Amino acid sequence: MKAAIDASIERLEAALVSAGFPAPMPPTDAESLDRIADAVLPYRLPGELVRFWQRVDPATITVMTFPELVGPTGALELHGVTREFPLASGPPLFFPIAYSSHVHRSIELVSEWSDGGTIFRWAWDEEAFRLDYRSLADLLDAFAELVAEPTLEHRGGFVLVPTDAEEALAAARWGAAGPHPHYRDVREFPEQVEGWPAHWLESSGIDLRDREPLGVTHTIAALAEAAAAGPVRARIAGTVIRLARIGNDVLVLVDDETGQLDIWCPAGTSPWGPGSGRRFEFEVELEGPLSPPPDFDAGHAEIQQHALSGRLEDAQAAAGEFLGRLKRHRPAAVATAIRPLDY
């Protein structure tokens, strides 16, 4: 593995020099590798990534691709952000190595299931994780091949690699290599966990059986009546008609046609939701009588009115006040489990 990544680094360096650009510089932030090793436990960085970062500062590679490769410090920062949104950013086996404008490249970590090293491309506003390259060495070899193309545009000391040219080369290299040892001929997995490989689910602590509804015990109207007498646990089903994210937690307003209930959903309650406009089964706990839900509509209307009138500072202030009201609000119920009803 060390020989393969060293050879790929040298091929990229040679391609850059041949095209009239400087060779990449040695790293300046290799000390971050120890912190990364702790951050990704119980998994490990692939050896070729460690070797690459020990030899090269990615910021000095004059191949401007989309997304752009980052060094250990930048990768560790990205890792912290992506792990705040675990399902949207893939399983915990993913570690970011490139980023530009919401688009990521992540490398699969070494785990009990595989030797890792496969590189995936994904974005916050996309709904799939695409297998991009089989290894970091493969990615660097593709870059070296692209740098050698005489038609590439040179600007400000960098080689600008068109995204479509790079994607076409990645697809060609992937196809020529034959089936992947673990993923076979599949090159894309959906964001929805129902389509994830088994080891992604296991590393995320997800059992698909946990999403199966258990059955409603109360309507919201019946729940309100029961809660008037004291603490109660129940399962309701309804549509999320309002949703607000407060940090990593979510506050929702649910309607089941017998009434409405505001439910606090702490971070990590469920991988299945909640999501606005969808139906879910909520397992909830209430301490006592229901209080009125917060006025979502008035807060949103005030923010929108300022924004449409061009009063951006007023809109930001209104948004801050609205968020503050939601934080101070004591929800009627707290969710302990959430299961989708319309997936």
Question: What's a concise summary of this model?
Answer:
With 343 residues, the chain is α+β, with helices and mostly antiparallel strands. Helices cover 34% and strands 24% of the residues.
- CATH classification class of the largest domain: Alpha Beta
Order of helices and strands: HHHEEHEEEEHEEHEHHEEEEHHE
Helix fraction by DSSP (H/I, runs of at least 4) = 25-40%
Return residue spans where pLDDT drops below 50 for at least 5 consecutive residues: none
Give the CA-CA distance, first to last residue.
42 Å
How many helices? The count is 10
Task: Please characterize this protein's 3D structure.
34% of the residues lie in helices and 24% in strands. It has helices at 2-18, 32-39, 47-55, 72-82, 136-147, 163-176, 198-203, 220-227, 296-308, 312-328, and strands at 63-64, 68-69, 94-100, 103-108, 119-123, 128-133, 153-155, 158-160, 188-190, 232-246, 249-255, 260-265, 279-286, 333-340. It folds into 2 domains: 2-203, 3-Layer(aba) Sandwich (SMI1/KNR4-like); 220-340, OB fold (Dihydrolipoamide Acetyltransferase, E2P) (Beta Barrel), CATH 2.40.50. The strands form 3 sheets. Strands 2-3-4-5-6-9 form a 6-stranded antiparallel sheet, with helices on both faces. It has a 5-stranded mixed barrel with strand order 10-11-12-14-13. Strands 1-8-7 form a 3-stranded mixed sheet, with no helix packed on it.
Chain-wise SSE layout:
Blueprint (H helix, E strand, L loop, with lengths): L1 H17 L13 H8 L7 H9 L7 E2 L3 E2 L2 H11 L11 E7 L2 E6 L10 E5 L4 E6 L2 H12 L5 E3 L2 E3 L2 H14 L11 E3 L7 H6 L16 H8 L4 E15 L2 E7 L4 E6 L13 E8 L9 H13 L3 H17 L4 E8 L3
Parallel strand pairs: 1-8, 12-14
Antiparallel strand pairs: 2-3, 3-4, 4-5, 5-6, 6-9, 7-8, 10-11, 10-13, 11-12, 13-14
